[in-house]
Design the sequence.
């Protein structure tokens, strides 16, 4: 039996006429791509990379009708660790609690319970994530990274040499 067969069904919740869903089938990669093109962390990302990222993570979307208006995804082994990324709310829908709704759904998700560590990176939304238990790294000296800033924007997605920034 495929491991996917043991997964619980996607969550679907409604609030104020909007639908929050973790069903990957609802996400249109073109819409997410348009969001990410406007982001400070993934501008220039190719749509094929967006498709691949969706195929290997848990996506959480908020939909107005079928239109994606807010998004976050979780990269996780569903046992010990999770990374929260690509959190984005359409400009016209900001300030209505949608990112908090996404974070509530993520933190409450059945497949993401009992993990030993959650991580994320943010430029300026620390107080959003603090409301869901995130704290600054207690021991930043213990963490290392390979970070390719502006990776896609340089159009050099095959480069193996680290960037100079
Ligand atoms: C940041 C962002 C996701 C917030 O979404 P939102 O749906 O408008 O936010 P909400 O209405 O759910 O409220 C967010 C809460 O976090 C707080 N917050 C902290 N940093 C924030 C920020 N940079 N922008 C907006 N709210 C922020 C707000 O004050 C609010 O808390 P409160 O209701 O207790 O006062 C949205 O502005 C966005 O998409 N920005 C561009 C992309 C981005 O920065 N993504 C985050 C990358 S880590």
Sequence:
């Amino acid at each position: 039996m495929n491991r996917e067969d043991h997964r619980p069904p996607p969550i679907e919740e409604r609030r104020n006429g909007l639908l929050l869903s973790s069903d990957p089938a609802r996400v249109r990669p073109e819409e997410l791509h348009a969001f990410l093109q406007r982001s400070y962390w993934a501008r220039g990302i190719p749509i094929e990379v967006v498709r691949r990222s969706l195929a290997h993570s848990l996506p959480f979307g908020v939909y107005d009708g079928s239109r994606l208006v807010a998004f976050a995804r979780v990269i996780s082994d569903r046992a010990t660790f999770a990374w929260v990324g690509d959190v984005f709310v359409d400009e016209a829908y900001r300030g209505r609690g949608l990112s908090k709704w996404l974070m509530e759904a993520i933190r409450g998700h059945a497949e993401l319970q009992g993990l030993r560590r959650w991580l994320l990176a943010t430029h300026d939304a620390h107080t959003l994530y603090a409301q869901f238990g995130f704290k600054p790294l207690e021991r930043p000296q213990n963490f290392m990274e390979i970070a390719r800033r502006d990776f896609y924007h340089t159009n050099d997605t095959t480069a193996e040499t680290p960037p100079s920034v």
In short: The pocket of coenzyme A is lined by residues 39, 87-89, 94-100, 122, 124-125, 127-128 (CB under 6 Å). The longest strand covers residues 67-76.
